[in-house]
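Re: that chain you flagged

S.,

Sorry for the slow reply, it's been a week of failed gels. I finally had a moment to sit down with the sequence you sent. For the record, here it is as I used it:
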Amino acid sequence: MRKLLFSIIFVWSLVVVGCGTDSNNNETENDQSIAKDKELNPDETEKEPLTLQLLKADEDAGMTLENNEIYQWIQAEIDADPFMGDEDDLSLYPFDIVESEDGSSSLMFLVINRLDNPIQNLIFSLTFGNDEGEYIFDDVVVDLPETYLGILDKNGVVPILVDMDAADEELFQSLTLDNVYLKLDNIGIDFDA
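Prediction finished late last night. Pasting the structure tokens below so you have them in one place:
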């Protein structure tokens, strides 16, 4: 699944263009390099790195970023690509299947806020599957009230779980960059004042 995640991130986000400097470069050369990077890739040079946040529900349950294996796993992925998500947009990335203690499965998505304001309530209809019309989720309402979500800061990312049928795990594993289909409709957002 990580291959799919990285492929989707690669397509949906821009490649970071870095500029290396050494101690012999002067300020003018650095300014020219930064200007050149902005011309080549203006969104990436303006983006702030992402910050992983705890869901309020997880925080209320006593979880921390340090004591939870799943959050540590997500943090490692964010560290590998801290500029995920489209500038001035809300992004949803399929991450992986998570199995609960009771044997049920959920699909973990990362919700990335690159909008100008923190989000306190979020609701949307999710369709996710392949481009041939086979869907894991078909117009499923995902409701993330502040009591569950908390406040999702600008440049913040949180994981969410959407329950799925075990029979759809095979479909999820078959998704590739060439056949994946993800659509959000009826998006409702309340911003934190």
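What I noticed first: Residues 2-191 form one domain.

Talk soon,
D.
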